[in-house]
Write a structure and sequence with these properties.
Blueprint: H1 3-16, E1 22-28, E2 37-43, E3 51-61, H2 63-70, H3 75-81, E4 94-102, E5 114-118, E6 126-130, E7 134-136, H4 143-147, H5 150-163, E8 171-175, H6 180-191, E9 195-200, H7 205-210, E10 215-218, E11 231-236, H8 243-247, E12 250-258, H9 271-280, E13 287-290, H10 297-308, E14 316-321, H11 325-333, E15 340-344, H12 346-350
Parallel strand pairs: 8-9, 8-11, 9-10, 11-12, 12-13, 14-15
Antiparallel strand pairs: 1-2, 3-4, 3-6, 3-15, 4-5, 5-7
The protein binds NADP nicotinamide-adenine-dinucleotide phosphate (NAP).
Length: 351
């Protein structure tokens, strides 16, 4: 959709919905690629008893947001996000901002608190979020970096620590190291004392090296599976390598954690690979496993701890204004984004 079309759409919705107070938001009324997104003026959401209302300063995009936009794999629709059209018309998960209202049951936050976490529709000037999906923003973390942290950081933390049980001195292979999850995983693995080998494409080699990777494999020139090296832990985030390829470089008692990977069929996406790993695991000395992220504030607090000490810095590689959020999601959806992409709202510019 062009800028003119976005402006037209904005005007039409503004004229027909006069209920104050209003806000700007990125909406979608049907599933599809980034051109289903439009900037619209809508009523501000009202927090439920266990939610807070946040004045958004920054938001970020992630692969999950792309899946919710396209409605693929179809498993997402069956899981309750809307069979024929998206149930949530405002898109976006990662958020940072200031609390402007609290629900009657909220105990952890007050109006004025600076927070980050996961919201229901963060690509907007205001967003609601469940109290247990938010934490206070560390003072040394900018709103932009905070917005980039929760979704990808949680996945990396769970993959390495809770599921992968990474130990100091272990050799860790991170496949898909340059993306949202991978850029956190490289830094967290280093912070845990591991020797990190990162797999990325040529354009991202310098990025993953700057994040602290000890060794970098450019997969366009080198095959990690052809290497004689064996790893204690493999965190597989991108590229959809087969389980057998990943197993071939796993030490005899090593652990493979499959976080995700794009592609697969339209019904189940990448899940077949994860299931195949779980099926094989009981029949080998290696541990082959996967997980679904736990969107809970306790993980965000742990992440904030790494960020406060400087061990981890969100790898923000691109910034867009709210009105250009469709371009940001298009960039990610096309596979051309690196690290994290942040959306700065109009509210931030006024702040
Ligand atoms: N299990 C969970 O709960 C959970 C949570 C979060 C995310 N995920 C999933 O994890 C996956 C990654 O998420 P993300 O947010 O990190 O996505 P992302 O930001 O798009 O990063 C994916 C990375 O994969 C890399 N890649 C592509 N082809 C590759 C190949 N052949 N070999 C190695 N790397 C390759 C790309 O880097 P290059 O350009 O350098 O190739 C890209 O940066 C997605 O499928 C997402 O749905 C799962």
């Amino acid at each position: 959709m062009t800028a003119t079309q976005l402006a037209d759409c904005d005007a039409v919705i503004s004229d027909t919905d006069a209920s104050p107070p209003q806000m700007k938001a990125i909406v979608q009324y049907r599933y599809g690629s980034a051109d289903v997104l439009a900037l619209a003026t809508l009523p501000r959401p009202t927090p439920k008893p266990d939610e807070v209302l946040i004045e958004v300063v920054a938001a970020a995009v992630d692969r999950g947001t792309c899946h919710l936009m396209t409605g693929t794999p179809y498993l997402i629709r069956i899981a309750g996000y809307g069979l024929f059209r998206p149930r949530n018309r405002i898109i976006g998960l990662d958020v940072s901002g200031r609390v402007v209202a609290v629900g009657t049951e909220v105990t952890r936050f007050d109006v004025g608190d600076e927070v980050f976490g996961i919201a229901d529709g963060s690509l907007a000037e205001f967003a609601t979020a469940a109290e247990d999906k938010l934490v206070l923003k560390p003072a040394n973390l900018s709103f932009e970096h905070a917005a980039a942290t929760a979704v990808s950081g949680i996945a990396a933390l769970e993959a390495l620590v809770d599921v992968g049980r990474a130990q100091p001195g272990q050799s860790v292979l991170i496949v898909g190291a340059s993306g949202g999850v991978g850029s956190f995983a490289v830094q967290l693995a280093k912070a845990l004392g591991a020797e990190v080998t990162a797999v990325a494409s040529t354009r991202n080699v310098d990025l993953v090296r700057s994040l602290g990777a000890d060794h970098v494999i450019d997969y366009t020139e080198e095959d990690f599976a052809a290497d004689r090296r064996r790893y204690d832990l493999i965190v597989d985030i991108g590229g959809r390598n087969s389980v057998s390829r990943l197993r071939s470089v796993l030490g005899p008692t090593g652990t493979l954690v499959i976080v995700g990977g794009e592609g697969g069929n339209r019904l189940t996406g990448g899940i077949g690979r994860q299931l195949w790993a779980l099926v094989q695991s009981p029949f080998t000395s290696r541990r082959l496993t996967t997980f679904i992220s736990t969107e809970h504030h306790s993980l965000m607090e742990r992440l904030a701890g790494y960020i406060e000490t400087g061990a981890v810095t969100p790898a923000v590689q691109a910034r867009f204004d709210l009105g250009d959020a469709a371009d940001a999601i298009g960039l990610l959806d096309s596979g051309r984004a690196s690290g994290k992409t942040v959306i700065v709202t109009g509210a931030a510019c006024d702040a």
